[in-house]
Amino acid sequence: MSDIPAARRKLAEPVAEALIEDIRSGRLKPGDLLPSERALMAAHEIGRPAVREALQRLQHAGLVEIRHGGRARVVSPSLSRTVDQLGETMRHLLVHSAASLENLKEARTMFEAGMARLAARKRSSRDLARLRAILAAQREARADRERFVALDGEFHREIASIAGNPLFAVVSEAVFLWLRDFYFGAVSVRGLEALTLEEHESILAALEAGDAEAASRRMSDHLERANELYRKSHLEDRT
Q: Under 8 Å CB-to-CB from 103, ≥6 apart: which residues?
């Protein structure tokens, strides 16, 4: 991504490559925790931002799962393949068929609105605590666009997990990563971090209240607002 400094990308590469080799060789197996950020910093003599960049690369490749407040964990190969295959399928449809980015964003809105409805019915106090922690971390990361966007995706993926269907988390992950990697403006509009936080807070409040319809409506409004801002920004670019 263009917003990531080239020096950080360069420092992250050997860390990512070493971890990928550990996973491929079987030294790290599905379910295993990766070394802590501090351990990776010491082993590779680099700073925390470069370590986080390396870990996020593995997450984007579908090799690990990163949850707020915990260490990265190796995911099963089947999950990794599913995320990759969904991403490739979306790319193929958008390039070779009548499907468009607008179709994908419309599908995401409907999917996540339904997901939020289910999550409001199934959430536990522990689920809500995780969401609250993610939102607090995102609030602290307002000045770090890369970190802010990563936590944005984590907030949505956590809701997918709470909904209880393991396919939801896979689809949510694949759609968010594809948009982030190929249409970054579809998941982040600079200067509107406060509005994103306000909307996430509103969604979380509906989940805490167990109000399924409010959670669905607020999620839909949140994503429709983002879609409309993306459309406006592209119209302005063309004028």
A: none
- Which of 61, 58, 71 is CA-nearest to residue 31? 71
Q: Give helix 101-122 / helix 166-182 axis angle, nearest 10°.
A: 140
pTM over 0.85: no
- What's the rounded Cα separation, in Å, for the pair 181 and 179? 6
Closest listed residue to residue 199, CA positions, set 161, 166, 165, 159: 159
Question: Within the chain, which residues score under 50 in pLDDT?
Answer: 1-2, 233-239
> Over the range 3-35, which residues count as b (16 or more CB within 10 Å of their CB) and which as e?
eeeeebeebbeebbeebbebbeeeebeeeeebb
Residues 128, 124: Cα–Cα separation, whole Å: 6
Q: 231 — phi, psi (to 5°)?
A: -60, -45
Distances (CA, A) of 146 to 6, 36, 52, 73, 180: 14, 20, 10, 21, 10
Q: Where are the alpha helices (DSSP H) in 123-192?
A: 125-140, 145-162, 166-182
With beta carbons less than 8 A apart as the criterion, state whether 135 and 155 touch: yes
